[in-house]
């Protein structure tokens, strides 16, 4: 499958890994939008929030647990951070392998910024 994040999981495309479990991978965004910008993804290819099935939500819980762990590891748990899932065209999703952005390390701007 022609998915850039699946290739990162396979190791075919290099990434700066932060944390990994059996089912989840965390790595640095190649174009950081904040001093801390990690991407948290399930190793299973799910295209977007629209494509998550009933049986995927335990896995997505593991993704959230990895996000919590990552915030601690990157030192932004106390200062605060933002977790974002972009879904579909209006959400600004570019990579269709479900992922959460973890942004922090500075005071973030308003949430309703236009592209
Ligand atoms: P989206 O807009 O789909 O929510 O976010 C996709 C994110 O993936 C973007 O922030 C982009 O910088 C990041 N990204 C795209 N290609 C790569 C890559 O090859 N490596 C890494 N580490 N991040 C990528
Ligand atoms: Zn994928």
TrEMBL record:
Residues 4-113 form the HIT domain. It holds the Pfam family HIT. It comes from the Bacteria. GO terms for molecular function: hydrolase activity. A motif (Histidine triad motif) lies at residues 97-101. Coiled coil: none annotated. Keywords: Hydrolase. This is HIT family hydrolase. It comes from Gordoniibacillus kamchatkensis. The lineage of its organism: Bacteria, Bacillati, Bacillota, Bacilli, Bacillales.
